[in-house]
Amino acid sequence: MSADVNDGLPMMATPVGSILPARATAGTELSEKILESTHKALTASPESRPASRTRTVRRLRPNTV
Q1: Cα 63 to Cα 13, 26, 57, 60, distances in angstroms
Q2: What residues have CB less than 8 Å from 41, skipping those under 6 apart?
Q3: CA of 29: how far to CAs of 22, 26, 33, 44, in Å?
């Protein structure tokens, strides 16, 4: 399975990833800030989003003797 940055995977992973810290800080101002900023990031127009950073992934080769 390949994950293309243009598919829905990042849109799904972002809110799921924000749930843990929001629940860990439940009932606080920080919890609300986490949820609000995640909502803003996901609903912002593509032009107003910060440029995405790309990572280079190196595949590790098994040790061969």
Answers
A1: 33, 46, 18, 9
A2: 14, 49
A3: 10, 8, 6, 22
Left (φ > 0), alpha (ψ -120 to 50) or beta: where does 27 sit? Answer: left
Residue with tokens 């280079």: 56
pTM assigned to the model: 0.56
For residue 53, the SS3 value is coil
CA 2 to chain centre: 17
Tokens 């107003």 belong to residue: 48
Residues of the chain whose pLDDT is less than 70? 1-6, 48-61, 63-65
φ, ψ at 17 (rounded to 5°): -70, -25
